[in-house]
């Protein structure tokens, strides 16, 4: 196909922009539940930019009106496929609090009012496309909502086990995980009219048991059928364990599961992108602003956080059991090169809104940059232990020197006044780094914290932490002591912000009382950042919530499922002081 004549400041979202570029029609149209912010922090913008960089013509339709066809038909029909995502957050998480209340604010909607993203957005948008484009539409699902709901999954909002969202949306393909390589391969196959069944990182529907494929680790793994797992919790647990164990890109096998009379086929995960590929993605010409078509509707609050923020790496080897990163971004940490990050920062200097402040340098966990296990890269993640739980593995080369060097280099750029680490950090990694940990924390407190350093101990009770897959409370006490000692030495108004969790499976009122006692006597405060556990799909904690069992021991555990009980747990920390 002919090359794109120019790189537009934004990916087109109107018919006029399509015409101005000299296109007859887009190859791909991406539909998203967020507004269109052209930023490397927004998945739909990244996928769109990557596809355009590969020579494909892309359009974006953000937050379409689902009551009529005016928005969804605006760009016509794509030549290759529709890409559908709920946005950066699962639509039900975006729309409802853990207490079941409708959220009033949406930081990724112009004007900030939560009124544009439908519940189960992936299904609603797919139905909308089918309504106006009938059977001519080839629909590809992506993003975190699709990724976490790709197999039979427990859905807390309906309190039942639902089948793969690929079937409920009546779509053709589901791209899971960080899907740049998968979606480019898919577009290339579609353009050349070739089979798509061999692409890593996708799910598709087959009428028959899939034939063996030598490019995937063999043999294929058969998951219990949906009809069985939807009725039998033991079968569901067995299915989830097999699914989770095969989420590793190095060792993960191809899975298939009978959903009705047809089969869901999940190919092995896409391999982690190497540093040069990550560098290329994050250095694409993002406008770092909202598209003017949507900007007229109001301010996008999220832009204040992400506009001048730098992503340094992907993935997290923490494996907290309530977190979906493991089966979405993955357990492998892939880091960008320092040179690429500096080049991206230099581009900030040319942006008219840049005031010299880099708001964040990090990833899912800031201080995992440049740290990864060589054995895991070759063999895949260990099946019998985690990288950090119950304690950091001896094979994990924890050293904060690389991140410190990066932060110093960014701070020395002419025109940069301040560089902040706004993402959370793992305090157990700092304690484990005996050579650089103390020095790293001192440098962070002196130069890279805007008043508050965020850590997420979640709890202090050993029984609850064990179920969460989090380090023990003694480590937190040791870190607080280290922090306070450095704070006295350095001076200044720097504080720790603690993220805690109530009503996690296994957590009782007594556990929360113990947490309150620890907070008042050791932390000398009652943290305000307390969230109620939300059972999102594809996590071990949600499995515990559904089955009332510890999946590793089979023992029954207490699970607070009543709203009043959940709120009571939270209020032990956030409510009025108890006598």
3D architecture notes:
The protein is α/β, with parallel strands linked by helices and 579 residues long. Helices cover 34% and strands 13% of the residues. The protein is built from 22 helices and 22 strands. Helix 17 packs across helix 19 (473-490). The longest helix has 18 residues, at 473-490. It is globular. The model is unreliable at 1-5 (pLDDT under 50).
Supply Rg.
Answer: 24 Å
Oligomer: single chain
Globally, the shape reads globular
How many DSSP helices? 22
**Share of residues in strands:** 5-15%
Helix-strand category: alpha/beta
Topology, element by element:
Blueprint: H1 15-20, E1 28-32, E2 37-38, H2 43-53, E3 58-62, E4 81-85, H3 91-95, H4 121-133, E5 139-141, H5 143-148, E6 153-155, E7 160-162, H6 165-168, E8 173-175, H7 180-191, E9 202-206, E10 221-222, H8 226-229, H9 233-245, E11 255-258, E12 263-266, H10 275-282, E13 289-290, H11 292-295, H12 303-306, E14 309-311, E15 313-314, E16 334-335, H13 338-348, E17 357-358, E18 360-362, H14 374-379, H15 401-411, E19 418-419, H16 427-432, H17 437-447, E20 452-458, H18 462-468, H19 473-490, E21 495-502, H20 509-523, E22 530-532, H21 540-547, H22 563-574
Parallel strand pairs: 1-3, 1-4, 4-5, 5-8, 10-11, 14-18, 17-19, 20-21, 21-22
Antiparallel strand pairs: 2-13, 6-7, 8-9, 9-12, 11-12, 15-16
Helix pairs in contact: 2-7, 9-21, 17-19, 20-22
């Amino acid at each position: 196909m002919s090359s794109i004549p120019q790189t537009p400041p934004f990916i087109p979202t109107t018919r006029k922009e399509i015409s101005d570029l000299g296109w007859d029609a887009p190859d791909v149209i991406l539909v998203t539940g967020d507004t269109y912010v052209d930023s490397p922090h927004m998945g739909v913008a990244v996928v769109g930019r990557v596809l355009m960089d590969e020579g494909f013509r892309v359009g974006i339709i953000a937050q379409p009106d689902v009551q009529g066809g005016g928005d969804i038909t605006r760009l016509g029909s794509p030549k290759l496929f529709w890409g559908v995502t709920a946005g950066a957050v699962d639509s039900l998480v975006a729309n409802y609090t853990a207490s079941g209340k409708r959220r009033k604010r949406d930081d990724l909607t112009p004007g900030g009012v939560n009124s544009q993203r439908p519940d189960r957005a992936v299904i609603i948008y797919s139905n909308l496309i089918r309504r106006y484009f009938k059977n001519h539409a080839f629909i590809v699902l992506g993003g975190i909502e699709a990724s976490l709901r790709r197999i039979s999954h427990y859905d807390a909002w309906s309190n039942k086990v639902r089948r793969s969202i690929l079937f409920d949306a009546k779509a053709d393909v589901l791209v899971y995980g960080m899907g740049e390589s998968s979606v480019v391969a898919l577009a290339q196959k579609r353009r050349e009219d070739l089979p798509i069944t061999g692409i890593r990182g996708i799910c598709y529907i087959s009428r028959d048991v899939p034939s063996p494929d030598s490019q995937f680790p063999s043999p294929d793994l058969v998951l219990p059928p949906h009809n069985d797992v939807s009725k039998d919790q033991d079968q569901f647990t067995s299915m989830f364990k097999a699914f989770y164990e095969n989420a590793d890109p190095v060792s993960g096998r191809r899975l298939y599961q009978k959903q009705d009379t047809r089969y869901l086929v999940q190919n092995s995960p896409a391999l982690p992108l190497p540093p040069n590929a990550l560098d290329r993605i994050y250095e694409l010409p993002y406008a770092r602003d909202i598209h003017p078509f949507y900007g007229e509707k109001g301010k996008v609050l999220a832009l204040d956080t992400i506009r001048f923020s730098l992503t340094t790496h992907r993935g997290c080897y923490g494996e907290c059991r309530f977190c979906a990163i493991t089966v979405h971004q993955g357990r492998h940490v892939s880091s960008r090169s320092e040179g690429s990050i500096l080049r991206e920062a230099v581009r900030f200097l040319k942006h008219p809104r840049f005031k010299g402040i880099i708001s964040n340098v990090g990833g899912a966990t800031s201080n995992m940059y440049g740290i990864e296990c060589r054995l895991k890269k070759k063999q895949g993640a260990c099946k019998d232990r985690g990288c950090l739980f119950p304690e950091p593995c001896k094979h994990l080369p924890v050293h904060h020197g690389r991140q410190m060097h990066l932060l110093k280099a960014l701070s020395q750029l002419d025109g940069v006044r301040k560089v902040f680490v706004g993402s959370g950090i793992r305090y157990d990694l700092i304690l484990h780094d005996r050579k650089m940990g103390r020095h790293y924390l001192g440098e962070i407190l002196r130069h890279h914290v805007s008043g508050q350093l965020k850590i997420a101990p979640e709890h202090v009770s050993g029984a609850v932490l064990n179920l969460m897959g989090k380090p023990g409370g003694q480590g937190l006490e040791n870190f607080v002591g280290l922090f306070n000692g450095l704070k006295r030495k350095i001076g200044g108004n720097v504080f720790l912000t603690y993220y805690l969790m109530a009503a996690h499976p296994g957590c009782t009122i007594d556990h929360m009382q113990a947490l309150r006692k620890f907070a008042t006597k050791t932390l000398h405060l009652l943290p305000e950042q307390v969230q109620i556990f939300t059972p999102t799909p594809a996590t071990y904690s949600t499995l515990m919530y559904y089955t009332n069992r510890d999946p590793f021991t089979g023992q029954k555990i207490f699970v607070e499922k009543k709203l009043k009980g959940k709120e009571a747990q939270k209020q032990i920390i956030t409510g009025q002081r108890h006598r």
